Structure formats: structure tokens, C-alpha cells
Automatic annotation (TrEMBL):
Lineage: Archaea, Methanobacteriati, Methanobacteriota, Stenosarchaea group, Methanomicrobia
Protein's name according to its UniProt entry: Archease
Superkingdom in the source lineage: Archaea
Domain (Archease): residue spans on this chain: 3-135
UniProt-listed InterPro entries: Archease, Archease_dom, Archease_dom_sf
Keywords: Calcium, Metal-binding, tRNA processing
Length: 135
């Protein structure tokens, strides 16, 4: 299972894994989308961004925070992310559609992405981490 929710007293804690680091980032985005937009989202719009940040937990936190920013500012419901790592960080493309309250309401508002407990580890199966969504 690429991501699964873990018990947490106040926020949403996800255990995320991927066979590659690219998959880990894309699954972390998918976990975020599942919390924010539980209904079906079509891929009618795209958003592209780049991040210059050292590899590691901070890059993953910045990547997910940037997704939150675009979802809010562009008023878009998102369903998928594609990540390409660069020498200085990453390049990402987000896929979704304009947010419609009658279609996309019902999700949980995520206020931020916490670095607390986030530690990217390599296992025999790939890469895993815990991601805490502040709600």
C-alpha cells in the first residue's frame, strides 16, 4: 500500500512509501489530495512549479506546502502530481480542475505540512516516511 493513515490525536498522519524517491513524493501528494479532495477530480488543468532546496525532508515539506499554496491561490482541486528531480531541487506538474464547492466540498482543510516526525528512510522495498498534515 503506497500510503495509509495512522492514528493521531489532532491532525492527519500518513505513512507514505514508494519504490523510488520520485514515487515517494508523488504518493505523498496523492495522500494530501485524498485528505483535501476526497471526491473524484478530473485532470483539466495543470500547474507547473520548481523548487530549489536541498534533497531530504525539507524538500518534501516544501513540495507539499507548495501544493497547498497553489490549491488555495489558484482555487483548484488536485488529483495527481508528477515530479522530476533536478540538480538543485525538483520540478513538479500538478493536475486537477477548478474547485467547485458542490463537487469538491467535504474534504478536510489542511493548514500546513509539519516537519515533526518526518524522516525519509530507505528500506528494502524503497523509500518511506511519515507526513503530518496540520488540519
Amino acid at each position: 500500500m503506497p500510503f495509509s493513515e495512522r492514528e493521531h490525536t489532532a491532525d492527519v498522519l500518513m505513512h507514505v512509501c514508494g519504490a523510488t524517491k520520485k514515487e515517494l513524493y508523488e504518493e505523498a501528494a496523492r495522500a494530501l489530495f485524498s485528505v483535501m479532495f476526497p471526491s473524484s477530480v478530473k485532470e483539466k488543468a495543470t500547474i507547473h512549479f520548481t523548487l530549489d532546496e536541498e534533497d531530504g525532508e525539507r524538500l518534501l515539506q516544501e513540495f507539499l506546502s507548495e501544493i497547498l499554496f497553489y490549491a488555495e491561490v489558484e482555487c483548484v482541486a488536485l488529483s495527481r502530481a508528477e515530479v522530476t528531480f533536478t540538480a538543485s531541487g525538483l520540478s513538479a506538474e500538478l493536475f486537477g480542475e477548478p474547485f467547485l464547492r458542490e463537487k469538491h466540498a467535504g474534504g478536510t482543510e489542511v493548514k500546513g505540512i509539519s516537519l515533526s516526525g518526518m524522516e525519509i528512510t530507505r528500506t528494502d522495498e524503497g523509500w518511506c516516511t511519515l507526513v503530518l498534515f496540520d488540519v
